[in-house]
Specification:
By secondary structure, this protein is α/β, with parallel strands linked by helices. It is built from 16 helices and 5 strands. The longest helix has 30 residues, at about 85-115.
């Protein structure tokens, strides 16, 4: 059945990628990504990632960009319900008009507030817009399923490379008190270390994999390995067109648009906090776990069992361990 642009999602997304993917046309393209031939998957992937550019491409240019023939493009258009390529391209344009109206409004507002001489303010406004988009894209039922999987898992593996490795480390640190075992797959190592950690992953485990533009090919391969081992894979990424979205059992979207940087981590950090908070309040046992964590680290926190001495001018010195704390334990 031919997709109808009028059924495109009307939610006020700051992310055109997510909004386009949730339109009728976008859903048809996502179905091709799941079930189509290799050549049709390549076309669908290109349309999802480059929908704005496609509106200006002739059939030959699109065929060259996708690495297929013009005849394959025509066959693709007919297979998803259009008379020809021109009709499909017009539908892309119509869908974009609906999708991009709130996005253009947002960007115009940001531009008016920040101006060319205030990149810092523009960056902060994009961060706020990304967090809002993340909130609107969040599926609460999926979030509940993810929390259940994390709670029941024998081990929770957390994976990210590059800048995403910092996000993975943050998530792993948050999850440790509330999961049976948390393994930061990459850490300061590379692909070989990550692959070694994942060698024993099973259907009783969860892999949370984090990747944003620019995507790491190794992360995609390792996530695919985990799915082949029947592990639950939770992907945290920016768009339904991301390869991680197709691999995952569950997907959490954090839009990462930024006027200067390759991607912004603001929404990803907010999403990590939202996931952890949902996990913490999901059952009463986590209250006791949080209390044990506080007890374990309280001796090392400022203002707890530390001595402060004042100098002759009344200024405080650095905290000093008490004699009891400094005394060596008996052999």
């Amino acid at each position: 059945m031919k997709p109808n642009a009028s059924s495109a999602s009307q939610r006020d997304y700051a992310s055109p990628e997510i909004a386009f993917a949730e339109s009728a046309l976008g859903r048809a393209l996502l179905m091709v990504l799941s079930d189509g031939s290799a050549s049709h998957r390549a076309i669908a992937d290109y349309l999802l990632r480059n929908h704005v550019r496609v509106t200006a491409l002739g059939i030959g240019e699109l065929a060259e960009s996708c690495g297929v023939s013009a005849a394959t493009i025509s066959r693709f258009a007919r297979d998803i319900g259009f008379k020809n390529y021109s009709a499909m391209r017009n539908e892309v344009a119509t869908t974009l008009q609906s999708v991009l109206q709130p996005v253009d409004k947002l960007r115009n507002n940001i531009g008016r507030k920040a101006g060319p001489m205030a990149p810092a303010l523009e960056s902060l406004d994009y961060a706020a817009a990304n967090v809002k988009s993340c909130s609107q894209a969040l599926d609460m039922r999926d979030l509940e399923h993810i929390v259940t999987a994390l709670t029941r898992a024998r081990a929770v593996y957390v994976l990210g490379f590059g800048l995403s490795s910092q996000l993975a480390g943050m998530l792993a640190l948050h999850l440790q008190p509330f999961c049976q075992q948390v393994i930061e797959v990459a850490g300061q190592g590379g692909t070989e270390i990550a692959a070694g950690h994942l060698a024993n992953i099973t259907s009783r485990d969860v892999l949370v994999v984090i990747s944003f533009p620019r995507y790491s090919a190794d992360v995609i391969r390792l996530a695919q390995f985990a799915r082949e081992r029947e592990a639950c894979v939770v992907s945290m990424t920016d768009s339904p067109a991301s390869a991680l979205a197709k691999i995952a059992t569950y997907v959490l979207y954090a839009h990462s648009s930024h006027p200067v940087l390759p991607s912004s981590a603001s929404a990803a950090i907010a999403l990590i906090e939202a996931l952890v908070v949902t996990l913490m309040v999901s059952n009463r046992d986590n209250v006791a776990k949080a209390a044990r964590l506080t007890d374990a680290i309280s001796a090392w926190l400022a203002g707890t069992d530390t001595d402060f001495s004042s100098t002759h001018d009344g200024k405080r010195r650095l905290p000093v361990r008490s004699k009891k704390q400094l005394r060596k334990p008996q052999e």
